[in-house]
Amino acid sequence: MSLSISLAINGRQHDVALNDPRVTLLDLLRERLDLPGTKKGCDRGQCGACTVLVDGRRINSCLALAASMDGAEITTIEGLAEGDELHPVQAAFIEHDAFQCGYCTPGQIMSAVGLIKEGMAGDDPERVRELMSGNICRCGAYQGITEAVLEAGRKAAENAQPQTGNPDTGKDAA
Amino acid sequence: MAIAEVEKQGVGVSMLRKEDDRLLRGRGQFVGDVRLAGMKDVAFVRSPIAHARVKGVHPPEDLRSQVVTAADLEGVKPIRAVSGLAGFKPSDQPVLAFEKVRQVGELLAMCVADTRAAAEDIAARVELDLEELPAVHDMIAARDKDAPLLHEDWGDNVFLETFVDVNIEAAFDAPIKITREIKTARQSMAPMEGRGTVAYWDKRMEQLVLISGSQMPHIVRTGLAECLGLGQHQVRIVSPDVGGGFGYKGILLPEDICLGWYAMRCGHPVRWIEDRREHLTAGANCREHHYVITAYADRDGKLRGIDCEATVDSGAYSSYPFSACLEAAQVASILPGPYDFPSYRCRTWSVATNKCPILPYRGVARTGVCYALELVLDAVAREAGLEPHEVRLKNLVQPDQMPFDNITRKHFDSGDYPEALQRAIEAIDVKAIRERQKRGEENGRLIGVGHSIYCEQGAHGTSVYSGWGIPMVPGHEQATARMTPDGGLELRVGVHSHGQSMETTLPQIAHEILGIDISKIKLVHGDTEYTPYSTGSWGSRCAVMAGGAVAAASRDVASRARKIGAHLLQVHVDDVELVGGRVKGPSGSVSLEEIAHTWYRLPQNLPDDVDPRGLEGTVGHKPKRDTGTFSYAAHAAVVAVDPENGDIEILDYVIVEDGGKLINPMVVDGQIYGGLAQGIGTALYEEMNFDSSGQPLASTFADYLLPGPTEVPAPRLDHMETVSPYTEFGVKGIGEGGAIAPPAAIGNAVNDALKDLGAELVRTPMTPRRVLEAIFAATNADSQDHSDRGGRT
């Protein structure tokens, strides 16, 4: 029996027939939809390498069943840059040497984008560390990651237009 | 303007990294990202038992063609990594187990299907008939006469015993004698990307291709070809982007051989991606040491001698290529650390147990050795009533002794160890901490300050490794430099980056010599087909060895470009110089682009006697002395210990390091930060425990705790620069160093905090439970036991 779902990934609509209901969102992205930028580090929600945005909120895609994503809007690392122009978080990661091997980096960046959107960290490095603590970096680039997230957060705050009614603001991380 | 750019891109410049862009966009290609038409997935059947006789492995009849067992692997040789050290007992690590299994997770069968999930479903149906044997889980008990034997023909469980004695008896009358029993936990390297292999048979090239994240692709090729009985030209190893390695990805795995064997026969690509459970429980183990160490010293803190019995839990098999005795043999040779003292004795055992083979991890034995020696030195200081740094300053090798041959004949190339320590002591402000300790904390926490210092041999070569006689001895490191017709440059090296930023740093070296803009210099690495043979990336060797080779190859090309340039300028070669990417004569200049264009596309304009090797050269490099560079660092930590709940918080951390000339200081800082993070993991969190039946108890990151952003403080770094007299530009290997000193510095800080309670921690990780146990033991021992062994956990 196959289950059909329809979801938007990086702005593009996908209709997918799931021949196995056990498939995770992570495996769907990587193995079916040719989007391997999202990484598998532990497959148990313990490392954060698979972080993506679902309807603007960051989640561990290894813990989400693809079948539960019908109608969702998903952003992965592949959908972040505008052509050649890097997303400000990506640019800040280069500037602050926020990674070495680059394997956890897609998850770190998606988590940082989600965090900045949540607006919970402000300009406090300890809050940034706490709210990024679901993302492990074995190369130990936490210093650079924290600086990069702070800088991207500051820039986002400077550029922010007065907004009302953003349903995501103030929500905690998944 | 060209010269200004030279200054901005060459050796010593903190350039942003060239490899960043693709990794940031999710366009890096790691082995799990490789997609090949017709590729099938592999799941392995692994032993659920640590020690057993294999009576039978029974695949389901209807799926027999999708299952491989040992009986199928005709002609495949086991992995055998022998050491040439006298008395070493070799082990045969089967590719798929048949007579016995000797560790949980050992391979028994390989299952192939369209997806991993389907392959796992098959694996679940393979029936195992295993007769359980008593397991050896404790390396000390493993040496008992009646211990069960892993390799019955050995007669015991000892891969290798070594012994060195340099006049230890002369130290016995020292007034201070401090003995400690010290343990370091078994750990896992745990790169965020595990192992993985994609294998296929290339029909046109008649070649087995293995795409596998490997730090050492050429060594894997050699080992794999030998096990499969192939010529080495019939094997190609491609190592794509590698998501961290830290030692684990240098090893030839039975999984690699299985996939290779199958790919030669099945007609389609096969893939195995290690999952985290496999990684933690079956593959990536390291660093379990046990020391009984005695320091002999005079009352003024001067060391008279060190006496040590060290045991290393080597696991079930000797792994390829570093062997089962890498750690223990290293312990014996590096235990004296950066100190000068007259007497030394060390006995080591590399012991076989029913656990995963022990593999090298960043710092290898140095982290454990530094922890053992530096803890004992602090205990000497407490006994002598001195500040720990006073004891160290009395014993460190002095700068005017450099180069210095130490008691185990290690040749320290250069450095000022006392200066590094003094800078760290000043930066951490020991005096202020002592005042703070007197005042006490309102919240009842105990403050401690501690430090440690080490020197790290890196890039050691032929003369060192030939003595160990393992399957891999590094010789000359080669690099190819090749100009392209448009004046760009390709560099080909046999080492491989797993996060070290080589795509940036090695081009910086070529740029330093040739002046070609770094955006036009491409590093080709990670493919045995395109790169010169190399032992690969290990031992903090790439900057020294591959960097030196790149410099040599770049100079080779530069000399030929100069000759062509001189001809084009119609002047003598002695009258030109290569500056900023241009060959300049007395009254004109010609660019490397024009020179390359001439060689490749206008050969009619070349001189008759032009060097026919053109603008391409492969050159081998060895430092002037191949005994290794000795980078070093002093680490200092301030901690707060909560005696109520055992919590340890790092309040401040200082690192003073000397890596000689730094090619890219930003990259080095990153390596040091990262090493510190791993060192904090070793000190406080990471532990791979086994129960008495040899079952691994940490199988997820909920059991095996990695430090996250809230556990790793922002350290303060201070750089010194003592150039190596033996290497290109004076660089020293420094990649591993950050991970060596933290357990010792933090451990000494914790013990400083606990000293008024008479408690002392002598094992890693220093968990809250162990802190409380140490305090409890000291409190209880207080009334009855005043010996120097009381109150330690």
From TrEMBL, chain A:
Q: State if Zinc-finger is listed as a keyword.
A: no
Which residues does the UniProt record annotate as the domain 2Fe-2S ferredoxin-type? 3-80
**Keywords associated with the record:** 2Fe-2S, Iron, Iron-sulfur, Metal-binding, Oxidoreductase
| GO MF entry, a single one | metal ion binding
Has the keyword NADP been applied to this entry?
no
Q: Which InterPro entries does the protein's record reference?
A: 2Fe-2S-bd (IPR002888), 2Fe-2S-bd_dom_sf (IPR036884), 2Fe-2S_ferredoxin-like_sf (IPR036010), 2Fe-2S_ferredoxin-type (IPR001041), 2Fe2S_fd_BS (IPR006058), Aldehyde_Oxdr_Iron-Sulfur (IPR052914), Beta-grasp_dom_sf (IPR012675)
Which PANTHER family does the record cross-reference, listed alphabetically? OXIDOREDUCTASE WITH IRON-SULFUR SUBUNIT, OXIDOREDUCTASE, IRON-SULPHUR BINDING SUBUNIT-RELATED-RELATED
According to UniProt, the name of this protein is (2Fe-2S)-binding protein
What species is given as this protein's source? Pseudohoeflea suaedae
UniProtKB/TrEMBL annotation, chain B:
Which keywords annotate this record?
Answer: Molybdenum, Oxidoreductase
- State any single GO MF term: oxidoreductase activity
Record-linked InterPro entries:
Ald_Oxase/Xan_DH_a/b, Ald_Oxase/Xan_DH_a/b_sf, Ald_Oxase/xanthine_DH-like, AldOxase/xan_DH_MoCoBD1, AldOxase/xan_DH_MoCoBD2, AldOxase/xan_DH_Mopterin-bd_sf
What is a single Pfam family found in this protein's UniProt entry? MoCoBD_1
Cite the SUPFAM superfamilies for this sequence: CO dehydrogenase molybdoprotein N-domain-like, Molybdenum cofactor-binding domain
Q: Which PANTHER family match?
A: ALDEHYDE OXIDASE 1-RELATED, XANTHINE DEHYDROGENASE
This chain belongs to which protein, by name? Xanthine dehydrogenase family protein molybdopterin-binding subunit
Could you tell me which species this protein originates from?
Pseudohoeflea suaedae
